[in-house]
Amino acid sequence: MPAPLGDVPYLVLAALSGGRRHGYDVVRVVGSLTEGAVTLGAGTLYGALDRLVQADLVAPDGEERVAGRLRRYYRLTESGTTVLDAETARREQVVVAVRGRLRAAGQEDEAWGTA
Amino acid sequence: MGDRMSDQQDLDETRYEADARRWLRVYPPRWRRAREDEVLGVLLDTRPAGASRLSTGARLDLVRGSVGFWWRTRPPFLVWLLWRWNDTLPGREHREWVLDDLNGRFWAFRQVVLGVPGLVAAGYLLAWSGGGSGTLWWFLLPFLVVMTGMCLPWPTRWRRRTVLREMAEVDRQEHVARRFDGSLPWRARRRWAWTDRLLWPVLAPLLVAVPIIGVAGWWWWSGAPGADEVAVIGPWLWSGGAGLAVVVAIVAAGVVVPYLAMPARARRRLEGRPDQPWRDLRPVPLLLVVPLTAVGAVVPLLAGALPLAHAVAALTGLSVPTWPGQATTSSVVPLLLVWAAAGTALLTHRQVVRARRTGPTPALVDVWSTRGGDDVLVDPPVVPYGHEFVPYPPAPGAAAHPSPGHH
Predict the structure, then answer these.
(1) ipTM of the assembly?
(2) Residues of B whose CB is below 8 A from A41
């Protein structure tokens, strides 16, 4: 079982799941995925990309110059897709478990209220 | 009006870019080589309207990212230690780190302060921290002078020599540019292994000769004039005749080591290079520094110039003559460190490790046989090194490259 991914690598993988993207695109997609709650800085983004490339979860996929700015594209690798799937399933399990606990806690509160 | 606004926007962007480039310098050069343009593009794309400088948050993010990068890509401690202390080249996966280290502005300073000289200095400072400020300064001043001298005029020449010696296994300087880049020769070098073949030819004479000389010295020189004034702090404390004997033993060891080193150098062969045995003897005077300095430590000691003796002997990293009674148990522990460091440095020095079985006579014969023969000094043709670009980060599986040390 792979180790759980941190939030930032997870969000970067999630942003790349829609196809190849360059750095600025990843920042925008992560912002929209989290409804503006997470704004990736350049240092954080490229730290995560370095690690993901090294772990073979993400691979560079060409580059181009737009208005004099270098844009290097990244894409998910096969193992990146697998890890993203596994991590999403793990997070879903956590969400379901926490919801169950909250529901149980709410029922207990109601029981206390009626008693 | 529109032109003026456009000009202002251009100016803001130019300033923003300059600020961003300045802050990207918190990253090591190896990262910047691979990423700077790309990250600069992202920073410019995410520039808030009207901003002419990075926000504090963006700057902190870059600093945090650079620290993380440095931490992830540093070589393991032992690899770092061997590189710093013994010039053992790290594996190919650390190639970019080595390039940065060599090209760094403070390379010579790191080499001295974090290397064996720094360790020896730290040990002595610890050892003498209770010995009175006068003693400390007599040691510290010459040490600082020597260290500064090592750092200031020599760095370029020194690092080029190191690179060539370690990576290219040649001893010419002309082959490598002033600043190292991807064309740096990274030739596999045999790593030293403590096999019997290497260990015993070096250690056996020392283990046999030094105690014999030491014991004989104690026996003979116990009653020598001035012997009472000598004390040597090492892992143990020797004073009086024993102290004098230890100093003599150190001198003897200093004679044995060059004796072993001489044939080692003489028998060194460079591929495609004519024999130049007389050049191979050049390090011998260097190794003679140890006994000469030890002698230098004893002479002023007997003449009463004790503080100078402290300073000179400290620089050898081998002996610390001092006043009888001054040695304390607290002095012994850091000196163990010093002796270990100095001993390791001396015994693992490639010239010593290359000690061969034949003795110095063949070396001297070689020197004699090539005397006056200028033809042996003809330079070999310069072979340009191939340029090999290693992307960063290394592609998965890059570690499968043969490590320089593996044969």
Answers:
(1) 0.86
(2) 57-58, 61-62, 65
